[in-house]
Amino acid sequence: MEPVNIIGAGLAGSEAAWQVARAGVPVILHEMRPLVGTFAHKTGDCAEMVCSNSFRSDDDVMNAVGQLHWEMRAAGGLIMAMADRHRLPAGGALAVDREAFSQAVTETLRAEPLIQIRPGEITDLPADGNWIVATGPLTSDALAGAIRRVTGTEALAFFDAIAPIVHAETIDMSVAWEQSRYDKGESDAERRAYINCPMTRAQYEAFIDALLAAEKTEFREGETAGYFDGCLPIEVMAERGRETLRHGPMKPVGLTNAHKPQEKPHAVVQLRRDNALGTLYNIVGFQTKMKYGAQAQVFRMIPGLENAGFARLGGIHRNSFLNSPTLLDDRMRLRTRPNLRFAGQVTGVEGYVESAAMGLLAGRMAAAEARGTDLAPPPFTTAMGALVNHITGGAEAKTFQPMNVNFGLFPPLDDARGGRRGRKDRYPAYTQRAKDDFTAWLAAR
């Protein structure tokens, strides 16, 4: 049996490789790292997480992301299995020890006899064979050029920003306190998963002034600043209005200052645990394009972080993706070159989980083709089906932008569970329908 070739061992490529091998089909997984590095990656491990250590909400009743988690677990997904094994306390979110997670994914793939990991850069797109392109937002210049030549169009682009990471021992806990928003979580560790730094009105205003005045990274010639709204740099949010951050990542709601319970903070900066040891915390929602020196100066204005030591400062990178509604069919194949499937963030989904989910589908579809059959996508009443439907035709091509999974992608409910009822009724109805339909899709396979 001819192998399935996968370009890129990120979250999507790793999941795709696992799904192909689970179907009994051999896989060659091509990864350029560490022979060819990127500015954002630090290792040559598979499924390295570079922006955050969070897979976001794990609530599979009230949240579309949590429903996507559920579907990936039901489908035997490797990424979710390793995330569950290396999860950290994070309230209602699924956060992981990122190094242990990627090492576990790498070891699992290497131990699978049907998977061969082949180092080296792929610089062109083969005209035959069964291929999945899962190169992510940091597709190499050579391969990006090949994609442009094959698609006959320029890839769209936006910018993803990386949040800074702080050494826990340098956080002043006489000012900061541990608490998840609204004390969410079933265990004490979950309810205390975040470190919170409070700001008065005067401190907030001074912080905004410094943020706006700070020196920023310049864009290279020919680049445009088309940011994805779910990952805006904090200075871009601040430019949209002085109160924007206070109603976004710095919102004070659901939190009580343990040191001064009678005083309501004007704003709160949250830090989320980044490793199992609890020695590193990332500043939640603080993606930035400030220059390094400016970052250290501005972030040390945050109460509790005056003496912060940074394990990593923020950064910014270009994120290229296809205009998938015009280029891909519902089997995720390039219409003009059906031997090529695309998966992950390059298809125009946004987020770790969404990228891995597209890898899961692409892997299963490629394996079915290798075995001489065809696999239709899940119904778009499911989280996975809604995503693939969006990128392969559901979205408006002229205004296509990267998309997280959300209930707005699901078809409306047909019965009394929908209508004018609030989200407390609608969301469980969406997720129950999705579970039923995804279970039926799996059983039919």
How is this structure best described in words?
It is a single chain. With 445 residues, the protein is α+β, with helices and mostly antiparallel strands. It folds into 2 domains: 4-155 and 322-444, 3-Layer(bba) Sandwich (FAD/NAD(P)-binding domain); 162-318, Elongation Factor Tu (Ef-tu), domain 3. It contains 13 helices and 17 strands. The protein has helices at residues 11-22, 64-74, 78-85, 98-111, 141-151, 188-191, 201-213, 234-239, 292-299, 324-327, 352-370, 383-394, 423-444, and strands at residues 4-7, 27-31, 54-57, 87-88, 93-96, 115-119, 130-133, 156-162, 165-167, 177-178, 194-199, 267-273, 280-283, 310-312, 315-321, 333-334, 337-342. The protein has a 6-stranded mixed β-sheet with strand order 6-2-1-7-17-16, with helices on one face. The longest helix is centred in the C-terminal third of the chain and has 22 residues, at 423-444. The protein starts with a strand and ends with a helix.
> What is the mean pLDDT?
90
Largest beta sheet: strand ordering: 6-2-1-7-17-16
The count of strands amounts to 17
Q: For the record, give the distance between the C-alpha atoms at the N and C termini, rounded to a whole number.
A: 20 Å
Strand percentage, roughly? 15-25%
The oligomeric state is single chain
Query: Count the helices. How many?
Result: 13
Instruction: Assign the CATH architecture of the largest domain.
Output: 3-Layer(bba) Sandwich
Task: Assign the CATH superfamily of the largest domain.
Answer: FAD/NAD(P)-binding domain
Major sheet summary line: 6 strands, mixed
Number of domains: 2
SSE arrangement, N to C: EHEEHHEEHEEHEEEHEHHEEHEEHEEHHH
